[in-house]
Structure formats: C-alpha cells, structure tokens
Specification:
Length: 151
C-alpha cells in the first residue's frame, strides 16, 4: 500500500486572509481552506484561546510558500490572465493548470461535474490546435517550405 507523501508545511499568503497559516495547513492536509478556517475560529470561540497563540507562532515560524504571490502581484497576474482569456478564449489558462477532483466535501479540488466541464473544454481547445497543425502540415505551403529547407 503506497501512501501519498506530503510536502513541506508553508504559509500560503496568496490564498490567506490574514497571514496564510490556515491556507498553508489546508494545502498540507489536502483540505478546503474554508474548513480549516472554520475549525480554527470555532476553537477560539469555544474557549481554546491557545489557537491564537499557535496561529501567531505559525505566522512567524512558517516560511512563505515558494512561488506564492502577494496580493498586488496576484491582481496583476489576474488581469494578465483575463487578457489571455479574452484573446485566447481561456486556452492559455487551461493548458498550464492541472485539474484536481475532490471526492469528499472537505478535500481541496473541484467537484466532479466542474472538473468534467474543464477537462472537456481543455480537450476541445487542444483539438482545435491539432486541427490547425494538421491543416498546415497538409498544405502546399508546408511542402514548399520543407523542400527549401532541404537545400
């Protein structure tokens, strides 16, 4: 039986509300971020004030996630991705991201119906790209270009 190996524990400040400690814990355990936040807030409200101390300690001890963007960089990247979505109909975004399906409500990822829709859209865009390549390879322009390159 193989176990899924977890990565290191980091603060995920790009998805975090305050410091990204809850988002980092959610990434580490493969849970939804909202679930970890609810657990921490519930713990604090139910009299476990040491959650606040642990959160602050995590804020200072844990490193930021490598490649995590701050809010300003995230906004600029979001505007760039919106531009790419307008120009390429979202093909640039979908080609670089992986699709993770969740089987339980507390796990991170997409619901199966949304994941199926994203996969279908991804394959349609890939099929369009293959058709463009096939059209070029079967064209006389490609044959002429290949013959010139042989000289």
């Amino acid at each position: 039986m193989t176990q899924k190996r977890r990565g290191e524990l980091y603060r995920n400040s790009s998805q975090g509300k305050i410091a990204g400690v809850c988002a980092g814990l959610a990434d580490y355990f493969g849970w939804e971020t909202w679930l970890v936040r609810i657990l921490v807030v519930s713990g604090v409200l139910l009299g476990m004030g040491w959650f606040i101390v642990i959160y602050i300690a995590g804020w200072f001890i844990l490193d930021k996630k490598p490649g995590a963007l701050n809010k300003k960089d995230q906004r600029s990247q979001k505007s760039q991705s919106q531009y790419a979505a307008q120009t390429n109909h979202g093909e640039a975004e979908l080609s670089s991201e992986s699709i993770k399906v969740k089987s339980r409500i507390w796990q991170s990822g997409e619901p199966p119906k949304q994941a199926f829709h994203d996969i279908r859209h991804k394959f349609k865009s890939l099929e369009r790209e293959v058709r463009v390549m096939e059209r070029y390879v079967t064209s006389p322009e490609f044959t002429v270009s290949r013959e010139i390159n042989k000289l």
